[in-house]
Amino acid sequence: MATGNARGIVLLAHGSRDERWREPIEAVAARVTALDPQARVVCAYMELAAPDLRTAAAALVASGAKVVRVVPLFLGMGKHAREDLPLQVQALRQAWPQVDFQLAGIVGEEPELVDLLARIASKS
Fold it and tell me: Pfam families attached here (predicted)?
């Protein structure tokens, strides 16, 4: 993202030591970039992989992002989404008060994803 572009998106996933685990997360990032070429899209992970949320957010802020949307790519509302993530986003807001950090709902609670998963499961 060029300096002055004001939008960033962090796709936040759990993380794994297995490199192949990242492939679908990075595929989502590539698709978001194709849909919204004006936004800078980065992946971040709660644990077991890098970068973490703070590092990813710092890169977006350094590149000029004034709004950063954090999108948790979790299927359910577990401890990370319920407890850890809100605290991490609050820490980002304190570190960069000039940036509007927005925390999206977890994707697993989106009706479109529930419908998609149901259609995939019912394929013959």
Answer: CbiX
